[in-house]
Amino acid sequence: MANEAAPCPCDIGDKMDYGGRGNEVQIEHINAYLTKPSVKTDKAVIVIQDIFGWRLPNTRYMTDMLAQNGYMAICPDFFVGKDPWNPTNDCLTFQEWLKDKQPTEINKEADVVLKYLKEQCNVTRIAVIGFCWGGVATHHLILHYPELKAGVSVYGIIRDSEYRYNLNSPTLFIFGENDAIIPLDQVTTLQKKLEESCSVDFNVKIFPGQTHGFVHRKREEINPKDKPYIEEARTDLLNWLKKYV
């Protein structure tokens, strides 16, 4: 997600060569990538894409990682068939591209996915995790869907709502110290306001030296100095889900 000072969106980073172990499914008017765990479960995690869309191999890798840890994991196309951002696009067109893809206007799709998980997958405990654009969407859903048991917003934050600190469920926020898209003053404000008014558990964690996208868009095997932080963040998000879902 771009901010006012930097209209160009984030870099795609290290695109993985990864096919995935799940399947694409049709759920009413949207498509989704679904990966089932090896054993039956009543727990599910909705994974929300970044600006590069639901088919980005990196996001499918994270979805599969969640399934390998025992969750029904689903990554819906919250762009509903519209083209994701292409890194070759002119940055000056980003705001126009974003107009019909607002991360706070996904309730219709969220309702469809929740219904599918409950009625078709027999899931009773559901969490949400999102990256970048999806981190903002995660923040939004946690504010509006009390039925969600937990949320993990990875470098995503709602900036323009006076109600953005009224979390309904335990939420972990993950940020990089050197994120050019989300300045640290916005992160410290989030921490302060949550401490003042939030009634559920939360954690705002900043990873030293890390940039936007480090959790899922950096490949640890070719970024050795970042590897400990990538692995720690992934462990943190898994532990958060294990604690609350």
Automatic annotation (TrEMBL):
Question: Which InterPro entries has this protein been placed in?
Answer: AB_hydrolase_fold (IPR029058), CMBL (IPR042946), Dienelactn_hydro (IPR002925)
Query: What top-level branch of life does the organism fall under?
Result: Eukaryota
Alphabetized UniProt keyword annotations = Cytoplasm, Hydrolase
Q: What is its main location?
A: cytoplasm
Transmembrane parts of this sequence: none
Dienelactone hydrolase domain location: 30-244
Any matching Pfam family: DLH
> Which spans of this chain does the record mark as coiled coil?
none
Where is it localised?
Cytoplasm, Cytosol
User: Does the keyword Ribosomal protein belong to this entry?
Assistant: no
**PANTHER family, alphabetically?**
CARBOXYMETHYLENEBUTENOLIDASE HOMOLOG
Q: Which family does the UniProt entry place this protein in?
A: Belongs to the dienelactone hydrolase family.
Q: What is this protein called?
A: Carboxymethylenebutenolidase homolog
Q: What does UniProt list as this organism's lineage?
A: Eukaryota, Metazoa, Chordata, Craniata, Vertebrata
Quick one: which gene encodes this? Cmbl
